[in-house]
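Supplementary Methods, section 5.1.

A reviewer requested that the exact input to the structure prediction be made available. We therefore reproduce it here, unchanged from the version used in the analyses.
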Amino acid sequence: MTRMTAPIVAAAVAAWLLVVPSAKAVDQPQTTDLTQMFRGGGVVVDDLRVVEIGGIVVIRGRATDKAQAEQAGAFAAANGFRRVANLVQLVEPVDDAVIERAAERALSLDRSFDDCKFRIASRGGVVHLGGQVHEELQKDLAVRLIRDIYGVKSVQADLR
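The structure derived from this sequence is encoded token-by-token as follows.
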């Protein structure tokens, strides 16, 4: 009887292993990335990420205006999505004067920029960095320092 039990137990274990992974796959909701659809539809939100998970549309990002955040939810409703979680955060608008001062301070405090000259301008968080440096490495360091400043979206460098 023990010779008959071993094949039956092995068959039962094999059947169980085949069934259990497929049961787990059914439990996980399907995820669809809708970010490009929303961007193409004119939703203007920084760091926009939109996914549909199990029938719920989750909208994430940052906006400086409440109307921008609401536009994302309205776009979802207009496209037939009934269950929407609009998690767009409202943030303070970027102050370019603060960014310029922070950039000037960061560059002036770093000893590797002694005898270098910089021109800094910021518009909407895009920093334009001009001037003269002595080494190629100084260009890379200056751009990296400015990129790390809160509110900076990008850095356009014209350093010679």
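The chain has a mean pLDDT of 84. These observations are discussed further in the main text.
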